[in-house]
């Protein structure tokens, strides 16, 4: 009888401890990867020990550097109406703020002209940063009551994430900036005086509503989960997701930022970005095996469609051509980058006007048409090399 009571008490205690640990994991475990699921499984498969490990690993920070979410909401700064300090007059932020599609957009050309006409040296960059901060504070209001802006020495992170998660992402952005600089030595360039700007939007609806501001009014466009936008204020945007999905997107889009000073052909820009993403964050799980992808390449590409690839148009396709464009760009860059010194010389001289054909011939002694025909198992004939005269758009 007593042993039965003792067993029941221990069983109820186990259930109570596991329930408390599960609640703590649900409330405080971050969004990175599958940690939450693994902790919950461990709690119920390993009595007491699983609960102890999960509780220890998911304790909320006692004194977070940036305060709790209520602290941030209470201490939010209002967007400034004026930027001051210039002898030529103030910059009226509100008068230069538009809202196409309901999204705040600052007149970046006017801000740049005001900063350069009002200041000299490093103070120009400081004035432009003030304008970017003002725009981001308008974006805080646009994103809703739970949005907040986290600013560090090298980045702005705008999101609705818990402060400690936003801090972790800020550290990742800073580390990725350094790693891209090492991996793409000689071609990557992050302006030292500019902070990286990352917008993390809560869902796909908000993401597409935001990026639609920077798209043409008409046309079909491929789906995406992240984008680098270089329209006056370079910044990148991602959809909030588990860390295993956000990490490669950030690496990919930050590579575009690092290469933006070169104004590369689209295929070359994307090929370097995909290879860098894979090197820093690992390869994404694809829907198809390499053999299946190769067969798709052979079926899809012809002399007409390869001109869409060289011009960059195929990257906006809404069919398999989108995936195959990124994959073909990755493969070509992987082949060309084996001799890095020659490849970096090619990259720094590649022009959009001919998709880099002349630069490839000069720096690498490679004919892009011959190369892609060989990769696609096609006979060496005319029609596969970049032909700018056939690019109608």
Can you put this structure into words, describing what you see?
Helix content is 54%, strand content 8%. The protein has 393 residues and is of the alpha/beta class. It folds into three domains: 10-57, no CATH class; 69-259, Glutaredoxin, CATH 3.40.30; 277-390, no CATH class. Strand 3 and strand 4 form a beta hairpin.
Top keywords for this entry?
393 residues; alpha/beta; Glutaredoxin; 3 domains; five-stranded mixed β-sheet; two-stranded antiparallel ribbon; 16 helices; globular
Question: What structural class do you assign from the helix and strand content?
Answer: alpha/beta
CATH architecture designation of the largest domain: 3-Layer(aba) Sandwich
What is the name of the CATH class of the largest domain?
Alpha Beta
- The count of strands amounts to 9
Determine the strand fraction and express it as a percent band. 5-15%
Uncertain residue ranges? 28-34, 59-75
The CATH superfamily of the largest domain is identified as Collagenase ColT, N-terminal domain
Across the major sheet, the strand order is 5-6-7-9-8
Number of helices: 16
């Amino acid at each position: 009888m007593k042993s039965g009571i003792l067993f029941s008490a221990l069983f109820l205690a186990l259930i109570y401890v596991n329930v408390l640990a599960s609640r703590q994991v649900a409330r405080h475990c971050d969004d990175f990867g599958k940690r939450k699921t693994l902790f919950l499984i461990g709690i119920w498969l390993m009595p007491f020990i699983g609960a102890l490990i999960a509780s220890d690993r998911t304790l909320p920070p006692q004194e977070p550097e940036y305060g709790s979410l209520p602290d941030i909401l209470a201490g939010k700064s209002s967007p400034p109406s004026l930027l001051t300090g210039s002898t030529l007059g103030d910059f009226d932020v509100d008068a230069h703020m538009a809202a196409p599609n309901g999204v705040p957009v600052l007149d970046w050309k006017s801000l740049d002209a005001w900063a350069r006409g009002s200041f000299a040296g490093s103070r120009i960059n400081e004035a432009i940063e003030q304008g970017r901060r003002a725009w981001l504070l308008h974006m805080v209001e646009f994103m809703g009551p739970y949005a907040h802006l986290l600013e560090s020495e090298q980045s702005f992170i705008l999101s609705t994430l818990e402060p400690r998660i936003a801090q972790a992402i800020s550290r990742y952005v800073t580390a990725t900036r350094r790693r891209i600089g090492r991996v793409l030595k000689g071609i990557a360039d992050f302006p030292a005086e500019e902070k990286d700007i990352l917008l993390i939007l809560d869902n796909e609806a908000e993401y597409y509503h935001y990026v639609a501001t920077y798209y043409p009014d008409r046309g079909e466009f491929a789906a995406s989960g992240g984008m680098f936008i270089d329209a006056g204020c370079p910044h990148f945007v991602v959809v909030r997701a588990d860390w295993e999905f956000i990490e490669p997107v950030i690496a990919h889009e930050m590579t575009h930022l690092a290469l933006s000073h070169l104004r590369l052909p689209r295929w070359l820009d994307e090929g370097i970005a995909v290879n860098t993403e894979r090197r820093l964050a690992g390869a994404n799980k694809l829907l198809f095996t390499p053999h299946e992808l190769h067969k798709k390449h052979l079926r899809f590409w012809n002399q007409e469609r390869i001109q869409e690839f060289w011009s960059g148009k195929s990257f906006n396709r809404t069919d398999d051509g989108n995936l195959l464009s990124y994959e073909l760009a990755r493969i070509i860059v992987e082949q060309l980058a084996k001799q890095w010194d020659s490849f970096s010389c090619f990259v720094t001289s590649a022009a959009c006007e001919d998709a880099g054909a002349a630069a490839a011939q000069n720096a690498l002694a490679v004919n892009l048409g011959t190369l892609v025909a060989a990769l696609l198992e096609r006979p060496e004939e005319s029609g596969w090399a970049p032909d700018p005269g056939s690019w109608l758009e």
